[in-house]
Input
Amino acid sequence: MKFTKQTKHDLITCGIVAAFYILVTILSATGHLSNHFRGLLVPLCYYAIAAVSLNLVVGILGDLSLGHAGFMCIGAFSSSLFSVAVKNSGLPSPLRFLIALVIGTLMAALFGFLIGIPVLRLNGDYLAIVTLAFGEIIKNFLSAVYLGYDEAGIHASFKSFQLQGEGKMLINGAMGIQGTPMDSSFTVAVLLLLITLAVVMNIVNSRTGRAIMAIRDNRIAAESVGINVTSYKMLAFTVSAAIAGCAGVLFSHNTTTLTASSTYFGYNVSIMILVYVVLGGIGSIRGSVIAAAVLYVLPEMLRGLSTYRMLIYSIVLIVMMLINWAPGAIAFRERYGIMAFLRRRNENRGKEGQRS
Amino acid sequence: MILSVNDLGISFGGLRAVDDFHIGIEQGELYGLIGPNGAGKTTVFNLLTGVYRPDEGKILLDGDDITGLSTIEINRAGIARTFQNIRLFKDLSVLDNVKIGLHNRFSYSTLEGILRLPNYFRTEKEMNVNAEELLEVFGLKDEKETLSKNLPYGKQRKLEIARALATAPKLLLLDEPAAGMNPNETGELMETIRFVRDHFKMTILLIEHDMKLVAGICERLTVLNFGSVLVEGETEKVLNDPEVIRAYLGED
Output
Protein backbone atom coordinates (compact mmCIF):
# COMPACT_ATOMS: atom_id res chain seq x y z
CA MET A 1 0.00 0.00 0.00
CA LYS A 2 1.22 3.46 -0.86
CA PHE A 3 0.85 6.23 1.69
CA THR A 4 0.70 9.91 0.99
CA LYS A 5 3.29 12.17 2.58
CA GLN A 6 0.75 13.39 5.11
CA THR A 7 -0.33 9.88 6.10
CA LYS A 8 3.32 8.94 6.61
CA HIS A 9 3.83 11.98 8.81
CA ASP A 10 0.78 11.00 10.90
CA LEU A 11 1.86 7.39 11.21
CA ILE A 12 5.27 8.50 12.46
CA THR A 13 3.55 10.59 15.14
CA CYS A 14 1.59 7.54 16.31
CA GLY A 15 4.82 5.51 16.07
CA ILE A 16 6.60 7.92 18.41
CA VAL A 17 3.85 7.47 20.99
CA ALA A 18 3.92 3.68 20.58
CA ALA A 19 7.73 3.59 20.86
CA PHE A 20 7.58 5.70 23.99
CA TYR A 21 5.01 3.30 25.44
CA ILE A 22 7.13 0.24 24.71
CA LEU A 23 10.26 1.89 26.10
CA VAL A 24 8.54 2.90 29.33
CA THR A 25 6.93 -0.52 29.73
CA ILE A 26 10.29 -2.27 29.37
CA LEU A 27 12.06 0.13 31.74
CA SER A 28 9.25 -0.25 34.20
CA ALA A 29 9.29 -4.04 34.05
CA THR A 30 13.04 -4.17 34.61
CA GLY A 31 12.71 -1.83 37.55
CA HIS A 32 14.53 1.16 36.09
CA LEU A 33 11.74 3.65 36.73
CA SER A 34 11.15 5.38 40.01
CA ASN A 35 7.69 5.33 41.54
CA HIS A 36 7.61 9.07 41.18
CA PHE A 37 8.14 8.88 37.42
CA ARG A 38 5.59 6.10 37.00
CA GLY A 39 3.07 8.33 38.73
CA LEU A 40 3.62 10.96 36.03
CA LEU A 41 2.77 8.70 33.11
CA VAL A 42 -1.03 8.96 33.17
CA PRO A 43 -1.07 12.73 33.75
CA LEU A 44 1.40 13.09 30.91
CA CYS A 45 -1.05 11.31 28.61
CA TYR A 46 -4.09 13.32 29.61
CA TYR A 47 -2.27 16.58 29.24
CA ALA A 48 -1.06 15.45 25.81
CA ILE A 49 -4.66 14.60 24.89
CA ALA A 50 -5.82 17.99 26.18
CA ALA A 51 -3.07 19.73 24.19
CA VAL A 52 -4.07 17.92 20.98
CA SER A 53 -7.71 18.83 21.56
CA LEU A 54 -6.85 22.49 22.16
CA ASN A 55 -4.68 22.49 19.05
CA LEU A 56 -7.79 21.59 17.06
CA VAL A 57 -9.30 24.92 18.13
CA VAL A 58 -6.19 27.10 18.28
CA GLY A 59 -4.13 25.69 15.43
CA ILE A 60 -6.66 24.24 13.00
CA LEU A 61 -9.71 26.45 13.54
CA GLY A 62 -7.57 29.47 14.45
CA ASP A 63 -9.61 30.61 17.47
CA LEU A 64 -8.16 31.14 20.90
CA SER A 65 -9.92 29.22 23.67
CA LEU A 66 -8.88 29.49 27.31
CA GLY A 67 -11.62 27.29 28.73
CA HIS A 68 -10.35 23.80 28.07
CA ALA A 69 -9.72 23.03 31.73
CA GLY A 70 -13.46 23.62 32.15
CA PHE A 71 -14.29 20.91 29.61
CA MET A 72 -11.82 18.60 31.33
CA CYS A 73 -13.63 19.36 34.57
CA ILE A 74 -17.00 18.40 33.07
CA GLY A 75 -15.60 15.15 31.70
CA ALA A 76 -13.98 14.39 35.05
CA PHE A 77 -17.04 15.07 37.19
CA SER A 78 -19.70 13.48 34.99
CA SER A 79 -17.69 10.28 34.53
CA SER A 80 -16.70 10.09 38.21
CA LEU A 81 -20.30 10.58 39.22
CA PHE A 82 -21.27 7.57 37.16
CA SER A 83 -18.37 5.42 38.36
CA VAL A 84 -18.99 6.21 42.03
CA ALA A 85 -22.72 5.62 41.69
CA VAL A 86 -22.34 2.15 40.12
CA LYS A 87 -19.18 1.20 42.03
CA ASN A 88 -20.84 -1.50 44.12
CA SER A 89 -23.26 -2.78 41.49
CA GLY A 90 -20.93 -5.51 40.31
CA LEU A 91 -20.28 -3.98 36.88
CA PRO A 92 -16.87 -5.24 35.63
CA SER A 93 -14.35 -2.41 35.82
CA PRO A 94 -13.35 -2.25 32.10
CA LEU A 95 -17.00 -1.93 31.10
CA ARG A 96 -17.63 0.60 33.87
CA PHE A 97 -14.69 2.68 32.66
CA LEU A 98 -15.83 2.46 29.07
CA ILE A 99 -19.29 3.73 29.96
CA ALA A 100 -17.75 6.45 32.16
CA LEU A 101 -15.55 7.44 29.22
CA VAL A 102 -18.52 7.73 26.89
CA ILE A 103 -20.48 9.73 29.45
CA GLY A 104 -17.59 12.10 30.19
CA THR A 105 -16.85 12.65 26.52
CA LEU A 106 -20.47 13.22 25.56
CA MET A 107 -21.16 15.57 28.46
CA ALA A 108 -18.13 17.67 27.57
CA ALA A 109 -19.26 17.66 23.93
CA LEU A 110 -22.74 18.77 24.98
CA PHE A 111 -21.34 21.67 27.02
CA GLY A 112 -18.89 22.50 24.26
CA PHE A 113 -21.82 22.74 21.88
CA LEU A 114 -23.98 24.83 24.23
CA ILE A 115 -21.16 27.20 25.14
CA GLY A 116 -20.10 27.34 21.50
CA ILE A 117 -23.44 28.77 20.39
CA PRO A 118 -22.94 32.19 22.01
CA VAL A 119 -19.15 32.12 22.19
CA LEU A 120 -18.26 31.37 18.58
CA ARG A 121 -19.92 34.60 17.47
CA LEU A 122 -16.88 36.30 18.93
CA ASN A 123 -13.36 36.46 17.55
CA GLY A 124 -9.84 36.81 18.83
CA ASP A 125 -9.29 38.28 22.28
CA TYR A 126 -13.00 38.45 23.03
CA LEU A 127 -13.45 34.76 22.39
CA ALA A 128 -10.46 33.98 24.62
CA ILE A 129 -11.83 36.04 27.51
CA VAL A 130 -15.34 34.60 27.30
CA THR A 131 -14.13 30.98 27.10
CA LEU A 132 -11.89 31.71 30.09
CA ALA A 133 -14.96 32.96 31.98
CA PHE A 134 -17.01 29.89 31.06
CA GLY A 135 -14.21 27.62 32.23
CA GLU A 136 -14.13 29.39 35.58
CA ILE A 137 -17.93 29.21 35.90
CA ILE A 138 -17.90 25.45 35.35
CA LYS A 139 -15.15 24.95 37.92
CA ASN A 140 -16.74 27.19 40.53
CA PHE A 141 -20.17 25.68 40.00
CA LEU A 142 -18.88 22.16 40.50
CA SER A 143 -16.93 23.13 43.61
CA ALA A 144 -20.06 24.61 45.20
CA VAL A 145 -22.65 21.96 44.46
CA TYR A 146 -23.79 19.22 46.85
CA LEU A 147 -25.42 16.12 45.44
CA GLY A 148 -26.49 13.02 47.29
CA TYR A 149 -29.21 10.41 47.55
CA ASP A 150 -31.00 8.74 50.43
CA GLU A 151 -34.32 7.06 51.15
CA ALA A 152 -36.21 10.21 50.26
CA GLY A 153 -34.61 10.47 46.80
CA ILE A 154 -31.92 12.55 45.18
CA HIS A 155 -30.93 15.87 46.71
CA ALA A 156 -29.00 18.70 45.11
CA SER A 157 -28.17 22.01 46.72
CA PHE A 158 -25.59 24.76 47.02
CA LYS A 159 -25.69 24.28 50.81
CA SER A 160 -24.46 21.35 52.81
CA PHE A 161 -27.29 19.08 53.96
CA GLN A 162 -27.85 15.98 56.07
CA LEU A 163 -28.88 12.73 54.48
CA GLN A 164 -31.63 10.73 56.12
CA GLY A 165 -31.01 7.07 56.88
CA GLU A 166 -29.20 5.02 54.26
CA GLY A 167 -27.69 7.22 51.60
CA LYS A 168 -24.54 8.55 50.05
CA MET A 169 -23.09 11.92 49.18
CA LEU A 170 -21.98 11.92 45.54
CA ILE A 171 -20.61 15.44 45.22
CA ASN A 172 -19.72 16.98 48.54
CA GLY A 173 -19.24 20.66 47.72
CA ALA A 174 -15.63 21.75 47.81
CA MET A 175 -14.67 18.26 48.96
CA GLY A 176 -15.70 17.01 45.54
CA ILE A 177 -16.24 13.37 44.68
CA GLN A 178 -14.68 10.77 46.96
CA GLY A 179 -13.75 7.25 46.04
CA THR A 180 -13.62 7.22 42.25
CA PRO A 181 -12.27 3.79 41.26
CA MET A 182 -8.72 3.94 39.89
CA ASP A 183 -9.56 2.66 36.41
CA SER A 184 -6.97 4.70 34.50
CA SER A 185 -3.70 3.06 33.69
CA PHE A 186 -0.78 3.98 31.48
CA THR A 187 -1.91 1.46 28.86
CA VAL A 188 -5.45 2.84 28.77
CA ALA A 189 -4.11 6.39 28.66
CA VAL A 190 -1.78 5.65 25.74
CA LEU A 191 -4.60 3.92 23.87
CA LEU A 192 -6.79 6.97 24.33
CA LEU A 193 -3.97 9.23 23.22
CA LEU A 194 -3.55 7.16 20.06
CA ILE A 195 -7.30 7.25 19.38
CA THR A 196 -7.28 11.02 19.93
CA LEU A 197 -4.39 11.42 17.51
CA ALA A 198 -6.14 9.28 14.90
CA VAL A 199 -9.40 11.20 15.24
CA VAL A 200 -7.82 14.65 15.10
CA MET A 201 -5.37 13.86 12.30
CA ASN A 202 -8.05 12.17 10.23
CA ILE A 203 -10.33 15.14 10.66
CA VAL A 204 -7.55 17.50 9.61
CA ASN A 205 -6.86 15.47 6.46
CA SER A 206 -10.44 15.24 5.36
CA ARG A 207 -13.00 17.42 3.65
CA THR A 208 -14.10 18.59 7.11
CA GLY A 209 -10.58 19.59 8.14
CA ARG A 210 -10.00 21.48 4.92
CA ALA A 211 -13.22 23.42 5.49
CA ILE A 212 -12.14 24.25 9.06
CA MET A 213 -8.70 25.41 7.91
CA ALA A 214 -10.29 27.43 5.10
CA ILE A 215 -12.27 29.32 7.76
CA ARG A 216 -9.04 29.89 9.68
CA ASP A 217 -7.21 31.22 6.64
CA ASN A 218 -9.95 33.36 5.17
CA ARG A 219 -13.46 33.37 6.46
CA ILE A 220 -14.91 35.52 3.68
CA ALA A 221 -13.37 33.39 0.94
CA ALA A 222 -14.60 30.24 2.68
CA GLU A 223 -18.15 31.56 2.60
CA SER A 224 -17.74 32.57 -1.02
CA VAL A 225 -17.08 28.95 -2.02
CA GLY A 226 -20.12 27.80 -0.08
CA ILE A 227 -18.62 26.60 3.20
CA ASN A 228 -20.97 26.85 6.14
CA VAL A 229 -18.71 28.74 8.54
CA THR A 230 -20.92 28.52 11.63
CA SER A 231 -21.52 24.80 11.50
CA TYR A 232 -17.87 23.90 10.90
CA LYS A 233 -16.77 26.19 13.73
CA MET A 234 -19.28 24.49 16.01
CA LEU A 235 -18.09 21.09 14.89
CA ALA A 236 -14.44 21.84 15.60
CA PHE A 237 -15.22 23.37 18.97
CA THR A 238 -17.52 20.51 20.02
CA VAL A 239 -15.09 17.79 18.99
CA SER A 240 -12.32 19.63 20.81
CA ALA A 241 -14.44 19.90 23.97
CA ALA A 242 -15.30 16.20 23.73
CA ILE A 243 -11.64 15.22 23.57
CA ALA A 244 -10.81 17.52 26.49
CA GLY A 245 -13.63 15.74 28.34
CA CYS A 246 -11.95 12.43 27.55
CA ALA A 247 -8.75 13.79 29.14
CA GLY A 248 -10.85 14.70 32.17
CA VAL A 249 -12.15 11.12 32.44
CA LEU A 250 -8.56 9.87 32.58
CA PHE A 251 -7.81 12.50 35.19
CA SER A 252 -10.68 11.62 37.50
CA HIS A 253 -10.11 7.87 37.30
CA ASN A 254 -6.48 8.40 38.25
CA THR A 255 -7.28 9.96 41.63
CA THR A 256 -9.51 8.90 44.49
CA THR A 257 -10.41 12.43 45.55
CA LEU A 258 -11.70 14.64 42.77
CA THR A 259 -12.09 18.31 43.65
CA ALA A 260 -12.86 21.18 41.31
CA SER A 261 -9.98 23.22 42.65
CA SER A 262 -8.10 25.74 40.58
CA THR A 263 -4.93 23.64 40.87
CA TYR A 264 -6.52 21.08 38.58
CA PHE A 265 -9.17 22.93 36.59
CA GLY A 266 -8.43 26.64 36.94
CA TYR A 267 -7.56 28.99 34.11
CA ASN A 268 -3.88 28.48 34.92
CA VAL A 269 -4.33 24.88 33.71
CA SER A 270 -5.99 26.12 30.50
CA ILE A 271 -3.05 28.40 29.98
CA MET A 272 -0.58 25.63 30.72
CA ILE A 273 -2.24 23.53 28.00
CA LEU A 274 -2.07 26.51 25.67
CA VAL A 275 1.66 26.77 26.42
CA TYR A 276 2.05 23.15 25.26
CA VAL A 277 0.22 23.97 22.05
CA VAL A 278 2.14 27.16 21.33
CA LEU A 279 5.56 25.72 22.12
CA GLY A 280 4.86 22.51 20.24
CA GLY A 281 4.02 24.64 17.23
CA ILE A 282 0.51 25.97 16.57
CA GLY A 283 -1.24 23.56 14.24
CA SER A 284 1.35 20.81 14.71
CA ILE A 285 -0.31 17.81 16.33
CA ARG A 286 2.97 15.98 16.84
CA GLY A 287 4.47 19.08 18.43
CA SER A 288 1.63 19.32 20.94
CA VAL A 289 2.22 15.77 22.14
CA ILE A 290 5.97 16.17 22.48
CA ALA A 291 5.74 19.59 24.13
CA ALA A 292 3.13 18.32 26.59
CA ALA A 293 5.32 15.34 27.49
CA VAL A 294 8.53 17.34 27.91
CA LEU A 295 7.03 20.32 29.66
CA TYR A 296 4.93 18.25 32.02
CA VAL A 297 7.68 15.87 33.07
CA LEU A 298 10.47 18.44 33.28
CA PRO A 299 9.35 20.48 36.30
CA GLU A 300 8.37 17.28 38.08
CA MET A 301 11.80 15.76 37.53
CA LEU A 302 13.46 18.94 38.73
CA ARG A 303 11.77 18.84 42.12
CA GLY A 304 15.11 17.97 43.71
CA LEU A 305 16.44 21.40 42.73
CA SER A 306 13.54 23.05 44.58
CA THR A 307 14.11 26.81 44.22
CA TYR A 308 15.82 26.66 40.83
CA ARG A 309 13.07 24.48 39.36
CA MET A 310 10.87 27.19 37.93
CA LEU A 311 13.90 29.16 36.77
CA ILE A 312 15.07 26.22 34.65
CA TYR A 313 11.52 25.61 33.45
CA SER A 314 11.21 29.21 32.25
CA ILE A 315 14.54 29.07 30.47
CA VAL A 316 13.42 25.90 28.67
CA LEU A 317 10.21 27.66 27.63
CA ILE A 318 12.15 30.58 26.19
CA VAL A 319 14.63 28.33 24.37
CA MET A 320 11.83 26.21 22.88
CA MET A 321 10.03 29.36 21.77
CA LEU A 322 13.20 30.60 20.07
CA ILE A 323 13.94 27.28 18.39
CA ASN A 324 10.38 27.04 17.10
CA TRP A 325 9.64 30.53 15.97
CA ALA A 326 12.74 32.69 15.62
CA PRO A 327 13.37 33.35 11.90
CA GLY A 328 17.08 32.63 12.31
CA ALA A 329 16.37 29.27 13.93
CA ILE A 330 13.90 28.35 11.21
CA ALA A 331 16.45 29.19 8.51
CA PHE A 332 19.10 27.19 10.36
CA ARG A 333 16.77 24.20 10.61
CA GLU A 334 15.94 24.35 6.94
CA ARG A 335 19.61 24.33 6.04
CA TYR A 336 21.15 21.96 8.59
CA GLY A 337 18.19 20.11 10.17
CA ILE A 338 17.45 16.40 9.94
CA MET A 339 14.75 16.84 7.31
CA ALA A 340 17.06 18.94 5.16
CA PHE A 341 19.75 16.28 5.50
CA LEU A 342 17.35 13.55 4.40
CA ARG A 343 16.13 15.65 1.50
CA ARG A 344 19.65 16.30 0.27
CA ARG A 345 20.47 12.64 0.56
CA ASN A 346 17.41 11.73 -1.51
CA GLU A 347 18.32 14.29 -4.13
CA ASN A 348 21.87 12.98 -4.36
CA ARG A 349 20.59 9.46 -4.74
CA GLY A 350 18.28 10.64 -7.49
CA LYS A 351 21.26 12.14 -9.31
CA GLU A 352 23.34 9.00 -8.94
CA GLY A 353 20.40 7.00 -10.23
CA GLN A 354 20.31 9.14 -13.36
CA ARG A 355 24.03 8.76 -13.95
CA SER A 356 24.12 5.00 -13.73
CA MET B 1 -30.58 35.14 -19.69
CA ILE B 2 -28.12 33.96 -16.98
CA LEU B 3 -28.26 37.04 -14.79
CA SER B 4 -31.04 39.52 -14.72
CA VAL B 5 -31.09 42.30 -12.14
CA ASN B 6 -33.73 44.97 -11.73
CA ASP B 7 -34.13 48.04 -9.53
CA LEU B 8 -31.34 46.92 -7.22
CA GLY B 9 -30.62 49.39 -4.43
CA ILE B 10 -28.98 49.67 -1.02
CA SER B 11 -28.29 52.48 1.44
CA PHE B 12 -25.72 52.65 4.20
CA GLY B 13 -27.12 55.09 6.73
CA GLY B 14 -27.93 58.16 4.68
CA LEU B 15 -25.67 57.19 1.78
CA ARG B 16 -27.32 55.79 -1.30
CA ALA B 17 -24.54 53.42 -2.37
CA VAL B 18 -26.36 51.69 -5.22
CA ASP B 19 -29.55 52.98 -6.76
CA ASP B 20 -31.82 51.49 -9.41
CA PHE B 21 -29.08 49.21 -10.74
CA HIS B 22 -30.02 46.89 -13.56
CA ILE B 23 -28.08 44.48 -15.73
CA GLY B 24 -28.83 41.60 -18.08
CA ILE B 25 -26.17 39.08 -19.05
CA GLU B 26 -26.57 36.33 -21.62
CA GLN B 27 -25.13 32.84 -21.35
CA GLY B 28 -21.45 32.79 -22.38
CA GLU B 29 -21.03 36.52 -22.39
CA LEU B 30 -17.96 38.43 -21.18
CA TYR B 31 -19.41 41.47 -19.49
CA GLY B 32 -17.60 44.40 -17.90
CA LEU B 33 -18.68 46.60 -15.02
CA ILE B 34 -16.65 49.81 -14.96
CA GLY B 35 -16.79 53.19 -13.33
CA PRO B 36 -14.73 55.72 -11.40
CA ASN B 37 -13.46 54.97 -7.89
CA GLY B 38 -16.26 54.85 -5.36
CA ALA B 39 -18.94 54.37 -7.99
CA GLY B 40 -20.28 51.28 -6.19
CA LYS B 41 -18.93 48.46 -8.35
CA THR B 42 -17.73 46.24 -5.53
CA THR B 43 -20.93 47.00 -3.64
CA VAL B 44 -22.84 45.60 -6.63
CA PHE B 45 -20.70 42.44 -6.42
CA ASN B 46 -21.36 42.19 -2.71
CA LEU B 47 -25.09 42.53 -3.38
CA LEU B 48 -24.98 39.84 -6.08
CA THR B 49 -23.10 37.43 -3.81
CA GLY B 50 -25.20 38.01 -0.70
CA VAL B 51 -22.56 39.79 1.37
CA TYR B 52 -25.08 42.64 1.61
CA ARG B 53 -28.85 42.21 1.51
CA PRO B 54 -30.41 44.60 -1.01
CA ASP B 55 -33.00 47.11 0.28
CA GLU B 56 -34.97 46.70 -2.91
CA GLY B 57 -34.75 45.05 -6.29
CA LYS B 58 -34.68 41.55 -7.69
CA ILE B 59 -31.80 39.30 -8.71
CA LEU B 60 -32.60 36.39 -11.03
CA LEU B 61 -29.96 33.77 -11.73
CA ASP B 62 -30.89 31.57 -14.65
CA GLY B 63 -34.53 32.38 -13.91
CA ASP B 64 -34.36 31.61 -10.17
CA ASP B 65 -34.92 34.38 -7.67
CA ILE B 66 -31.83 34.56 -5.44
CA THR B 67 -32.55 37.95 -3.86
CA GLY B 68 -31.73 38.03 -0.15
CA LEU B 69 -30.14 34.60 0.01
CA SER B 70 -26.96 34.12 2.04
CA THR B 71 -23.48 34.00 0.49
CA ILE B 72 -23.39 30.24 0.91
CA GLU B 73 -26.80 29.70 -0.69
CA ILE B 74 -25.92 31.99 -3.57
CA ASN B 75 -22.70 30.08 -4.19
CA ARG B 76 -24.69 26.85 -4.24
CA ALA B 77 -27.17 28.47 -6.63
CA GLY B 78 -24.27 29.13 -9.00
CA ILE B 79 -22.38 32.40 -8.51
CA ALA B 80 -18.66 32.24 -7.72
CA ARG B 81 -16.32 35.16 -7.30
CA THR B 82 -12.77 36.33 -6.84
CA PHE B 83 -11.71 39.27 -4.70
CA GLN B 84 -10.07 42.61 -5.37
CA ASN B 85 -7.47 41.88 -2.69
CA ILE B 86 -6.60 38.23 -3.24
CA ARG B 87 -8.18 35.98 -0.63
CA LEU B 88 -6.57 32.57 -0.83
CA PHE B 89 -6.34 30.02 1.94
CA LYS B 90 -2.74 31.01 2.29
CA ASP B 91 -1.43 28.32 4.64
CA LEU B 92 -2.93 25.51 2.55
CA SER B 93 -1.46 23.92 -0.55
CA VAL B 94 -2.51 24.93 -4.03
CA LEU B 95 -4.29 21.59 -4.43
CA ASP B 96 -6.18 22.00 -1.14
CA ASN B 97 -7.32 25.46 -2.17
CA VAL B 98 -9.04 23.99 -5.21
CA LYS B 99 -10.35 21.01 -3.25
CA ILE B 100 -12.05 23.44 -0.86
CA GLY B 101 -13.74 24.88 -3.92
CA LEU B 102 -15.01 21.36 -4.65
CA HIS B 103 -16.35 21.06 -1.10
CA ASN B 104 -20.06 21.03 -1.93
CA ARG B 105 -19.79 18.93 -5.06
CA PHE B 106 -18.12 15.91 -3.50
CA SER B 107 -19.34 14.87 -0.12
CA TYR B 108 -18.73 12.38 2.64
CA SER B 109 -19.56 12.76 6.31
CA THR B 110 -17.10 13.79 9.03
CA LEU B 111 -17.48 10.34 10.57
CA GLU B 112 -16.57 8.65 7.29
CA GLY B 113 -13.49 10.89 7.25
CA ILE B 114 -12.49 9.98 10.82
CA LEU B 115 -13.00 6.25 10.29
CA ARG B 116 -11.49 6.35 6.78
CA LEU B 117 -14.33 4.33 5.30
CA PRO B 118 -14.17 3.35 1.60
CA ASN B 119 -16.28 6.35 0.64
CA TYR B 120 -13.53 8.62 2.02
CA PHE B 121 -10.88 7.17 -0.27
CA ARG B 122 -13.20 7.05 -3.27
CA THR B 123 -14.36 10.65 -2.88
CA GLU B 124 -10.91 12.02 -2.08
CA LYS B 125 -9.60 10.36 -5.22
CA GLU B 126 -12.34 11.89 -7.34
CA MET B 127 -11.64 15.28 -5.76
CA ASN B 128 -7.93 14.95 -6.51
CA VAL B 129 -8.61 14.06 -10.12
CA ASN B 130 -10.98 16.97 -10.55
CA ALA B 131 -8.75 19.47 -8.79
CA GLU B 132 -5.70 18.40 -10.77
CA GLU B 133 -7.59 18.76 -14.02
CA LEU B 134 -8.42 22.34 -13.10
CA LEU B 135 -4.83 23.05 -12.04
CA GLU B 136 -3.59 21.59 -15.29
CA VAL B 137 -5.78 24.00 -17.23
CA PHE B 138 -4.29 26.94 -15.33
CA GLY B 139 -0.72 25.65 -15.56
CA LEU B 140 -0.47 25.20 -11.80
CA LYS B 141 -0.24 21.43 -11.63
CA ASP B 142 3.51 21.37 -10.96
CA GLU B 143 2.99 23.57 -7.94
CA LYS B 144 0.11 21.67 -6.40
CA GLU B 145 2.03 20.94 -3.18
CA THR B 146 3.22 24.55 -2.80
CA LEU B 147 1.61 26.65 -0.09
CA SER B 148 -0.59 29.13 -1.90
CA LYS B 149 1.02 32.10 -0.10
CA ASN B 150 4.33 31.18 -1.73
CA LEU B 151 3.00 31.47 -5.29
CA PRO B 152 3.97 34.50 -7.37
CA TYR B 153 1.28 37.15 -7.64
CA GLY B 154 0.01 36.30 -11.12
CA LYS B 155 -0.38 32.65 -10.22
CA GLN B 156 -2.23 33.54 -7.05
CA ARG B 157 -4.79 35.35 -9.23
CA LYS B 158 -5.08 32.29 -11.43
CA LEU B 159 -5.49 30.02 -8.44
CA GLU B 160 -8.29 32.19 -7.14
CA ILE B 161 -10.09 31.85 -10.46
CA ALA B 162 -9.49 28.07 -10.44
CA ARG B 163 -10.92 27.83 -6.94
CA ALA B 164 -14.01 29.78 -7.95
CA LEU B 165 -14.49 27.55 -11.00
CA ALA B 166 -14.20 24.46 -8.80
CA THR B 167 -17.62 25.29 -7.37
CA ALA B 168 -19.04 24.77 -10.89
CA PRO B 169 -20.75 28.16 -11.11
CA LYS B 170 -23.12 29.39 -13.80
CA LEU B 171 -21.72 32.89 -13.44
CA LEU B 172 -18.19 33.95 -12.51
CA LEU B 173 -17.56 37.35 -10.95
CA LEU B 174 -14.04 38.75 -11.17
CA ASP B 175 -13.30 41.78 -9.00
CA GLU B 176 -10.42 43.72 -10.56
CA PRO B 177 -8.47 40.69 -11.73
CA ALA B 178 -5.68 42.83 -13.19
CA ALA B 179 -5.12 44.95 -10.07
CA GLY B 180 -1.41 45.17 -9.29
CA MET B 181 -0.31 43.48 -12.49
CA ASN B 182 2.28 44.68 -14.97
CA PRO B 183 1.37 44.90 -18.69
CA ASN B 184 2.85 41.47 -19.41
CA GLU B 185 0.87 39.80 -16.65
CA THR B 186 -2.26 41.66 -17.72
CA GLY B 187 -1.84 40.34 -21.26
CA GLU B 188 -1.53 36.83 -19.96
CA LEU B 189 -4.55 37.33 -17.73
CA MET B 190 -6.64 38.45 -20.72
CA GLU B 191 -5.75 35.18 -22.41
CA THR B 192 -6.72 33.26 -19.29
CA ILE B 193 -10.10 34.95 -18.95
CA ARG B 194 -10.92 34.42 -22.60
CA PHE B 195 -9.80 30.82 -22.28
CA VAL B 196 -11.99 30.27 -19.21
CA ARG B 197 -14.98 31.58 -21.11
CA ASP B 198 -14.36 29.37 -24.13
CA HIS B 199 -13.16 26.23 -22.35
CA PHE B 200 -15.78 26.17 -19.58
CA LYS B 201 -18.54 27.92 -21.59
CA MET B 202 -18.55 30.31 -18.64
CA THR B 203 -20.44 33.55 -18.29
CA ILE B 204 -18.17 36.18 -16.78
CA LEU B 205 -18.89 39.54 -15.21
CA LEU B 206 -15.80 41.52 -14.30
CA ILE B 207 -14.93 44.79 -12.62
CA GLU B 208 -11.83 46.41 -14.05
CA HIS B 209 -9.97 49.69 -14.14
CA ASP B 210 -7.49 48.64 -16.80
CA MET B 211 -9.14 50.01 -19.96
CA LYS B 212 -6.86 48.00 -22.22
CA LEU B 213 -8.15 44.81 -20.67
CA VAL B 214 -11.77 45.98 -20.73
CA ALA B 215 -11.58 47.08 -24.35
CA GLY B 216 -9.70 43.91 -25.24
CA ILE B 217 -12.03 41.24 -23.90
CA CYS B 218 -15.39 42.60 -22.79
CA GLU B 219 -18.25 42.35 -25.25
CA ARG B 220 -20.62 44.59 -23.39
CA LEU B 221 -20.21 47.10 -20.60
CA THR B 222 -22.19 48.82 -17.91
CA VAL B 223 -20.76 52.06 -16.56
CA LEU B 224 -21.58 52.88 -12.98
CA ASN B 225 -21.37 56.40 -11.60
CA PHE B 226 -22.46 57.52 -8.14
CA GLY B 227 -24.21 54.20 -7.59
CA SER B 228 -26.42 54.18 -10.67
CA VAL B 229 -26.10 53.07 -14.27
CA LEU B 230 -24.68 55.82 -16.47
CA VAL B 231 -24.47 54.00 -19.79
CA GLU B 232 -24.68 50.41 -21.00
CA GLY B 233 -24.14 48.67 -24.30
CA GLU B 234 -21.47 47.45 -26.74
CA THR B 235 -17.94 48.03 -25.44
CA GLU B 236 -16.77 50.27 -28.29
CA LYS B 237 -19.81 52.48 -28.19
CA VAL B 238 -19.73 52.83 -24.42
CA LEU B 239 -16.05 53.73 -24.25
CA ASN B 240 -16.54 56.51 -26.80
CA ASP B 241 -19.62 57.88 -25.10
CA PRO B 242 -19.04 61.54 -24.11
CA GLU B 243 -20.87 61.02 -20.81
CA VAL B 244 -18.51 58.21 -19.88
CA ILE B 245 -15.46 60.25 -20.76
CA ARG B 246 -16.80 63.10 -18.66
CA ALA B 247 -17.44 60.76 -15.70
CA TYR B 248 -13.87 59.52 -15.82
CA LEU B 249 -11.98 62.66 -16.71
CA GLY B 250 -14.29 65.35 -15.34
CA GLU B 251 -15.47 68.40 -17.28
CA ASP B 252 -13.05 70.91 -18.65
User: Anything to note?
Assistant: The mean pLDDT of chain B is 92. The interface with chain A takes residues 49, 51, 71-72, 75-76, 80-81, 83, 87-92, 96, 99-101, 103-104, 106-108, 110, 113-116, 120, 123-124, 127, 163-164, 166-167 of chain B (CB under 8 Å). Strands of chain B lie at 3-12, 15-25, 30-34, 56-61, 64-65, 79-81, 171-175, 203-207, 220-225, 228-234. The first helix of chain B runs from residue 41 to 48.
